[in-house]
Design a protein that fits this description.
heterodimer; A: mainly alpha; MetI-like fold; two-stranded antiparallel ribbon; disordered N terminus; B: Dipeptide-binding Protein, domain 1; Dipeptide-binding Protein, domain 3; about 20% strand
Chain lengths: ~350, ~525
């Protein structure tokens, strides 16, 4: 979605282009960017409605029986007549469209409904778990971006050198490794063999969620998430830095005798970073799926593991709310990336 | 492309410093920071594979007691007998056995400080029975026709029929009546995640999918527990639990027999084995033309090598099963109703019934092959192993068994046609397990008696035992039931699983028990943790 309707930066000519953004021009630009954001947000509404309707439709086709989930182990001793009574009481046999109507009506009045799998209000489930997911995803993204900038720059700086060869090879290999394999491997090495870091959880058994506890438990999942997301970013930074190092303005800077780090960091890197920002936005969906897998493996008490549980239990209200959140994250990610690029590079069209 | 000049020295340190900082954060964390916990024996940290869905007794939490958070009117002792908990004394039935009057304990308070009285008992049991609350324990209380508050300290239960083991229905946790004011499905009740009981512990914190923390109830009517805090960490993977137990993360937890054995010579730990009534049986549908034949079922009961299964699959931790009544309840066991391993007898029964061996070694009769399918829940390794062993024993006498591992949603609609590895069992009264499993009134009713076994003699003995108060007379009826069942077995009981646990040394108060089919940390060595104390 992002790549299709996103901005299309024209081939950069110089690192900075002063001039046209002064005074009235700057205000016009700000309005255009605001209009872009407005259009995208308006577009998001039908997308979200469609996505949540699709969740209910898929749920209706699910082979799992929500009444069995409601009963849990009690199902084995329950009489059929009692099970049928509960089925009627819970209204789980209502058509998906009717259930969707109930849910949508509740949503409009601010009531997200009740999660059957967690047996508590959906807002409580999200309220307890969203912060941990945000923490994990932001740290993971930070690790990925940091890795991309550091390794991408170093690799491009000496194309064909040993570091470049290692980074490229490992990067391509990592692209093919699913995050949960990486997670299990990391646990085997850093938690079980070396015993540097805890295996799983948010804190040690029986400890409160203090800063040092959470930090220690965050390192491994966040690193795994970051590393699993990094190869695309690293290879991208490397590639675009390579092309911008070949640009005239870089050659010009070199000719002026500027220091090498100045040439790379101030002249070549900025032009290489514009498409990078777009790419980071476009990676948000992978980040969300990656987080689901990493949270599962590390028993991280975030939203992603709730997705799995609610899907297995055909827990419509929670599943729909979580899907909406994920969709929203993707839309926002791409919007923020586009706004950032539009603000950074005045030549970028604001798709209207 | 311009020829890259060597990197100036200043760029390298900047980038390397960034990388090193990341690595440092990752590596600076100390291992096992919990060594200090060894000193504090007032805290107990356990690991368990099963996280409860809910802590609400109306949704089945701790249905057979040992709840920690709630009290029933009665509670179990180590010897499986009942003692008063929220009741002031053991209740007695009326002369016709159809009503039971319970006197209640005084001066009991819920965790929120509200006083406990008869209204709470009435509200809890009425909510369990009222379909509007969608309680999942309703079926097991179906004998209750009314609950009446006689006065604030007395409750009377009226039954639809005389039910001798009724005291066992009084171990369910009692909720405060205030939280039951509104009749609504219990998945909406705040009690699911923030329970308010009268029990020895209150819930301090529960991070779903990770761990639960209980803290001692200082005003507990039975005295403040000496173990002040219990943390239960949830870890489904057996090897993870074993590894983290060994690493010192936990003070105990359940492990499968083979893994538990590896702790037998580990300093500081002991392995606890509980005998159980937790049976595994090959349940046989009467609607299937092969399993519906009495000779096939009888022959397979002789053909299976139960001892061999226990030794090979359960590391010796189990007991052979022929009926739902285990040897661990010796007073009820009928010795003549036990099947021996006798392949020749199995072949004789089949030959006599006209099941003739074909060229491929599989028997047939009137053009029908002696073949059927056994389903087991996918992911349950014990049931899968037992199903495979059963299939190989059956093949040896000329009966072909095909195996299918499925989810419960796929199993349920096929239970009338295909056999199934079933497991359950309650150690407290034979009625609780045997009646729903084998009485014809439960035939095909949900997961109760799924094979629709119907045997008038079995029905008669089970009904008589249920309506008789005199204990000796009841034992006689249950022995009669077992003889009638063994003459025409409805299924092939294989084993009673032992439950094995690893427990760290350092506490006193543990008492061995016989367990049922339980999920979660309610039972196990910690069933009476409120009576434990740190070892001096």
């Amino acid at each position: 979605m992002n790549l299709a309707d996103g901005p299309t930066p024209s081939p950069p000519a110089t690192a900075r282009q002063p001039g046209p953004l002064a005074g009235a021009g700057r205000r016009r630009r700000a309005r255009a960017v605001a209009a872009l954001a407005g259009r995208r947000l308006a577009f998001a509404v039908p997308v979200l409605v469609l996505v949540s309707a699709a969740v209910f439709a898929l749920g209706a086709a699910s082979p799992f029986d929500p009444v069995k989930q409601y009963y849990g182990n009690q199902i084995f001793t329950a009489s059929q007549s009692d099970v049928d009574r509960v089925r009627a009481e819970l209204g789980v046999d209502e058509p998906a469209l009717v259930q969707f109507g109930h849910w949508l009506g509740g949503l409009l009045t601010g009531d997200l409904g009740h999660s059957r799998s967690f047996r508590q209000p959906v807002t409580d489930v999200i309220g307890e778990r969203l912060p941990w997911t945000l923490l994990l995803m932001c740290s993971g993204l930070a690790v990925a971006v940091l890795l991309a900038l550091v390794l991408g720059t170093l690799a491009a700086r000496r194309q064909g050198g040993w570091l470049d060869r290692v980074v490229t090879a490992v990067g391509h290999a990592l692209e093919g490794i699913p995050p949960f394999v990486l997670a299990l491997g990391a646990i085997a090495v850093f938690a079980l063999t070396l015993r540097w870091l805890p295996v799983a959880g948010l804190t040690d058994a029986g400890q409160p969620a203090t800063f040092s506890q959470v930090t220690r438990h965050l390192v491994l999942p966040a690193s795994v998430l970051g590393v699993s997301q990094s190869p695309w970013l690293v290879l991208h930074v490397r590639q675009s830095l390579l092309s911008s190092l070949a640009e005239d303005h870089v050659a010009g800077a070199r000719a002026r005798g500027l220091a090498e780090w100045m040439v790379v960091l101030r002249h070549a890197l900025p032009t290489a970073l514009l498409p990078f920002v777009t790419l980071v936005g476009a990676r948000v969906p992978e980040l969300v799926t990656g987080a689901v897998l990493v949270e599962e493996v590390f028993s991280w008490p975030g939203l992603a593991s709730a997705v799995v549980k609610s899907a297995l239990s055909v827990d419509f209200p929670l599943l729909a709310a979580l899907t909406l959140l994920a969709t929203l994250a993707v839309l926002l990610g791409s919007l923020l990336a586009d706004v950032a690029v539009a603000l950074l590079d005045p030549r970028v069209a604001t798709d209207g | 492309m311009p020829h890259p000049r060597p990197l100036r020295p200043r760029l390298v340190p900047v980038l390397l410093a960034l990388a090193a900082a990341t690595a440092l954060v990752a590596c600076s964390a100390p291992a096992n920071p919990d060594a200090s916990r060894d000193a504090d024996r007032t805290r107990l940290t356990l690991v368990d594979p099963n996280e409860p869905d809910s802590l609400n007794p109306l949704l089945g939490y701790a249905e057979s007691g040992a709840s920690k958070l709630f009290d029933g009117l009665l509670a179990y002792r180590a010897d499986r007998t009942l003692e008063p908990a929220l009741a002031a004394e053991l209740p007695q039935p009326s002369a016709d056995g159809k009503s039971w009057t319970v006197k209640l304990r005084k001066d009991v308070r819920f965790h929120d400080g509200s006083p406990f009285d008869a209204a709470d008992v009435v509200a809890t049991y009425k909510a369990a029975l009222n379909p509007a609350y969608a309680s999942t324990v309703r079926s097991s209380l179906s004998m209750i026709s009314d609950v009446v508050e006689m006065d604030p300290r007395t409750v009377r239960f009226d039954l639809a029929y005389p039910y001798a083991p009724f005291q066992h229905k009084l171990v369910m946790g009692i909720l405060p009546s205030e939280v039951l004011a509104k009749p609504e499905p219990q998945d909406r009740s705040p009690m699911n995640v923030k329970p308010i009981g009268t029990g020895p512990y209150e819930l301090e914190d529960w991070r779903r999918g990770e761990r639960m923390v209980l803290k001692a109830n200082d005003t507990y009517w039975g005295g403040a527990p000496k173990i002040r805090k219990i943390t239960v960490v949830f870890a489904t993977d057996d090897n993870t639990r074993a590894q983290r137990l060994r690493g010192g993360d936990f003070d105990g937890g359940p492990l499968p027999p083979k893994l538990a054995k590896t702790f037998e010579n580990t300093d500081g730990f002991k392995v606890v084995t509980h005998r159980t009534s937790d049976y595994r049986t090959i349940e046989m549908p009467m609607g299937n033309p092969v399993t519906g034949d009495k000779a096939i079922r009888l022959a397979l009961n002789y053909a299976v090598n139960r001892k061999g299964m226990i030794d090979a699959l359960l590391a010796g931790k189990g007991a052979p099963a022929s009926t739902p009544i285990p040897q661990s309840l010796p007073e009820f066991v009928e010795p003549s109703a036990q099947f021996r391993y006798d392949r020749a007898e199995a072949e004789r029964v089949l030959d006599e019934a006209g099941w003739v061996k074909g060229d491929d070694g599989i028997r047939g009769r009137d053009g029908r092959r002696a073949a059927f399918t056994v389903m087991y829940p996918a992911g349950d390794n014990v049931r899968k192993d037992l199903a495979q062993a059963f299939a190989s024993d059956a093949k040896a006498v000329g009966v072909e068994v095909n195996l299918e591992g499925l989810g419960w949603d796929a199993i349920e609609p096929r239970m009338g046609q295909d056999a199934l590895v079933l497991g359950d069992g309650n150690p407290f009264d034979p009625d609780l397990t045997s009646y729903p499993l084998l009485h014809s009134s439960y035939a095909g009713d949900g997961f109760n008696n799924p094979g629709s076994y119907k045997n008038p003699e079995v029905d008669e003995a089970l009904d008589a035992a249920r309506r008789t108060i005199d204990p000796a007379q009841r034992v006689a009826y249950y022995k009669q039931f077992q003889r009638a069942y063994a003459a025409d077995p409805g299924m092939v009981f294989l084993v009673f699983l032992d439950h094995t646990y690893v427990v760290r040394d350092g506490w006193t108060g543990y008492e061995p028990i016989v367990e049922g089919h339980v999920h979660g940390f309610t039972w196990g060595p910690w069933w009476n943790v409120q009576d434990w104390a740190p070892k001096r």
